[in-house]
């Protein structure tokens, strides 16, 4: 076996764009993306629960799509754009979702919340006004041990409605 | 738990992936979506020394028509089954099955090639290959070949793909206007693996089923066609009596294995219930 594939058990350099900034870090090939975000980059908003793809606590956006950060290795993200809950919070992209979760008590311990928000963000980007059924379906891979799901679904449905209303008002204002 | 240490290689071409695997031998694994492989590594069910990432091989991507076939690149993600217009038009059974595969974020990464190569008997897409009479293109040391789905699934997690070979594309016969598809499954919870599931493709004329292929999953070591039930339904108009005959025929077609949770008799019962529902719908559409 040639050295390029034999020797790489030690750290390799990964470059990616995390929350809009270019980042370089050294990871072992077996470090998952969630390990790298939390341990190397100290972005601890992305949570590690099951580390098996079952709970949804570790969701991040990879090149704009929600993926489980526990189900890919950090080396695989080399050259990609990663957006975590910190980035989405700071940019204000999910401010309305966060406010509505807060208002409706859609979280208790908050462990599942980053994953819930990232999933909700992706759902609303794809479907403007999803049915409650569709919201449930989209969240079917996100476990919450505290709140139960009703308040979370209420919050997402309310934000969807508010966004649709706001878009309609803006269209009306523009046409006037 | 964490995966055991391994080396990582990002392949740029099919040849590079095959060569690298050949040099590493048994100790290497291809990684596509990683949605099954990464949990297996974390549990240390597998501990290869080398992972060969195939995600950056352009030849494995893309969906296009080639003559009488729809060619779906192995790296096509499950989520693309829901949005790619060519799949909706020419492989509507895959479009129908996709919402039942895992959860949205897993669908964003999991690939058709990975699902078919893994051949989990509880997975939706491998069985759909059988229902569609699809062909699986495999690249290996001696070049490329195409294997019919009927010959592809050998035993539990065992397929016609040899060690170090790569699934490069899936070829599905183009859907025709005189055809109907139907997909359904019974699961405890949406996104969970099915207790039993089925996909069917029927060719119809004036309300009569000329030919039908029905493939069940989660009922044995491999996805399974219900050949006797298919024969019962060929050349007839679907009615209550035919449905009952087809349901009875399943006893000879499916042999669910012993399991603590779901005894074989119960799984067979669920398969009959599912078949009844699906044929009811198909009868209306034919
Ligand atoms: C919580 C959870 C729920 C799930 N639910 C479902 C479900 O309901 N239904 C379902 O079908 N699946 C389900 N899955 C599995 C998921 O759909 C995977 O995407 C799929 O089974 C494997 O595809 P992959 O691309 O991720 O393959 P990987 O995990 O990358 O690889 C799987 C295996 O196939 C091999 N391989 C991959 N691509 C190729 C190729 N082109 N050629 C040769 N070998 C290859 C790999 O070496 C590996 O051995 C679930 C997964 C999780 C984590
Ligand atoms: S930590 Fe990734 S899904 Fe649970
Ligand atoms: S708020 Fe505690 S797990 Fe959801």
TrEMBL record, chain A:
Organism: Bradyrhizobium ontarionense
Pfam families from the UniProt entry: Fer2 (PF00111), Fer2_2 (PF01799)
Name of the protein this chain belongs to: (2Fe-2S)-binding protein
PROSITE patterns tied to this protein: 2FE2S_FER_1, 2FE2S_FER_2
Xref: InterPro entries: 2Fe-2S-bd (IPR002888), 2Fe-2S-bd_dom_sf (IPR036884), 2Fe-2S_ferredoxin-like_sf (IPR036010), 2Fe-2S_ferredoxin-type (IPR001041), 2Fe2S_fd_BS (IPR006058), Beta-grasp_dom_sf (IPR012675), Diverse_Oxidoreductases (IPR051452)
Residues of the 2Fe-2S ferredoxin-type domain: 12-88
Keyword set, alphabetical order: 2Fe-2S, Iron, Iron-sulfur, Metal-binding, Oxidoreductase
Family annotation (CDD domains): fer2 (cd00207)
Lineage, broadest ranks: Bacteria, Pseudomonadati, Pseudomonadota, Alphaproteobacteria, Hyphomicrobiales
TrEMBL record, chain B:
PANTHER family, per database record: XANTHINE DEHYDROGENASE SUBUNIT C-RELATED (PTHR42659:SF2)
Key words of the record: FAD, Flavoprotein, Oxidoreductase
Span of domain FAD-binding PCMH-type: 1-177
Source lineage: Bacteria, Pseudomonadati, Pseudomonadota, Alphaproteobacteria, Hyphomicrobiales
Coiled coil: none
Alphabetical list of Gene3D superfamilies matching this protein: 3.30.465.10, CO dehydrogenase flavoprotein, C-terminal domain (3.30.390.50), Uridine Diphospho-n-acetylenolpyruvylglucosamine Reductase, domain 2 (3.30.43.10)
InterPro entries the UniProt entry points to: CO_DH_flav_C, CO_DH_flav_C_dom_sf, Diverse_Substr_Oxidored, FAD-bd_PCMH, FAD-bd_PCMH-like_sf, FAD-bd_PCMH_sub1, FAD-bd_PCMH_sub2, Mopterin_DH_FAD-bd
A family per Pfam: CO_deh_flav_C
Protein name in the entry: Xanthine dehydrogenase family protein subunit M
